[in-house]
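[SOLVED] Need 3D model of a two-part complex

Original post:
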Amino acid sequence: MTETAERKALTREQLLSAYRIMRAIREFEERVHAEFATGEIPGFVHLYAGEEASAVGVCSNLDDRDTIASTHRGHGHCIAKGVDVGEMMAEIYGRKTGSCHGKGGSMHIADLSKGMLGANGIVGGGPPLICGTALAAKIKGTGGVGVAFFGDGASNQGTTLEAMNLASVWNLPAIFVAENNGYAETTSSTWSVASDNIADRAAGFGMPGVIIDGFDFFAVHEAASEAIARAREGGGPTLLEMKFTRYFGHFEGDQQTYRAGEVEHARAELDCLKRFAARTTETGELTQSDLDAIDAEVAAATDRAVMEAKAAPLPTEADLLTDVYVRY
Amino acid sequence: MARTITYREAINEALAQEMERDESVIVMGEDNAGGEGSPGEMDAWGGVLGVTKGLYHRFPGRVLDTPISESAFIGAAIGAATAGMRPVAELMFVDFMGVCFDQIYNQAAKFRYMFGGKAVTPVVIRTMYGAGLRAAAQHSQCLYPLFTHIPGLKVVVPATPYDAKGLLTQAIRDDDPVMFFEHKALYDLAGPVPEEGYALPFGEANVVREGGDVTIVTLGRMVHTSLEAAGQLAGAGVQCEVIDLRTTSPLDEDTVLESVEGTGRLVVVDEAHPRCSMATDISALVARKAFGALRAPIETVTAPHTPVPFSNTLEDLYVPDAQRIANAVKAVAEWTR
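Solution:
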């Protein structure tokens, strides 16, 4: 399929929505970056900026039947699957009004009512779980799929490899999305991943593997659309590998002494939002004023999320012991 | 109506009745069927323990074979539980938890709390434990203390066919993740079990023998060894009250404390290793909450702090027997200041 034909396949509403969600993720992450520096946000945060086209390109093919599992770098996946941005920001600030009432934090934001099975503090924690949600969809015949997002680091974890094997053995409607941003913490994936590409590993599990320019929303959307349609029809799992760069460190505070120049180059030349804007305005599908309006709306919503989070109450002693069990 | 069936049959019956009652109940594990495409009889083994035999054909599509890939299929059971199923996964030997523990203790156990009460994960992980089959160090451990330590998990250790059926039924109906421990030396134990389905509540210990002199708190296979010791001791004039904990999480503290309030003497019998175990946990509970009632030091009878040995002579020395229990009971019964 040509690039033009693919873009024609997306409606104006779909294009506006994709841009709005990618912009919302970027704005959210840039803002958390700035606010973290003030010292008001507790704990660790791992930012997704730069990788937006992956979360949105995949999740724009999903609906309420579908579930995703995420990673420690999970804010983008949450927003792309429809988790409330205000509740997410409150969670990151450890507030009672947060997605998890302040008990999870950045690494555990979840909203099962949205099919978002959680960011995950364990590298490789998500893929086995997604075999389960995909199995449930298959048994119940909902046509739903399960999508496991994981990084280049998790591509070396046994859980991920076992899950891909099981997904093929059980012929599950599962999609494995390897987000290869070049570094597992500080360690280059060119060193830690023994195969040339993570996608090459798909052959070992009897599933298709696709290498994708992770900065290109349209490339991601097209590949994900094909894989998800195949999974919904009983055609089994696919491994998608996004190649791109994260704009911030492994965690906030990381001095990034292990790399130089990449981020500046990516931000200037490869950025998913810039490319999306350039393409859609060149074809006339969207106008600059469409995009400007979204930028303003997203900036205001993010401001509001931060303000509300800062003003929200903290959990109290009464919350410490609740929700360990449904009933004990 | 109750008939006499084995511990293995009682577990199979609970699975079958709950699968009949609720179509969201599914079963998965290694060698459940032998894998599609095998030349021999499907369901040849019914799991390596034979516990799921007969279910594969009775419930088409709901008994899943798995590769030897515990992280993947235990994780899949947990994921399916978050998506509306009630999976019962078989972790063949609890010793294999080492390859899939993350999915149990970092994922299943923590979802509800770390997601702010929004997750429900009704998964059951059935697993075989304990020494006695000369299966040596990596197939014989009693690892329920490790799971009991983890908030968010419930831990069940049935001693009889009746309890196995009732507690497994409760485990399947329960909305929290449950670890269900089956002692490999009990599978052929027969006992009365009602035909109809029934659930036994968690956190309710069973006083399996009443007596006023010494309280024995125990669980699993050691219930039977303790009863044997109690029978011998009765002949010597020492009356033991034997308490089967049935579940270690939740723990029925009241039944233990009430008994010790009456006897003033406690022996805890556990096949697990001695450190950070139910033996130390129950000892600490009684020392803290029934200190005033104690008339003798608390005694424990456990396996030693060693891996499980292979050779017959060594394994027999490793597992607590009735004589060691009787000696401990006599020591606390005769203890004077």
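Edit: The radius of gyration of chain A is 19 Å.
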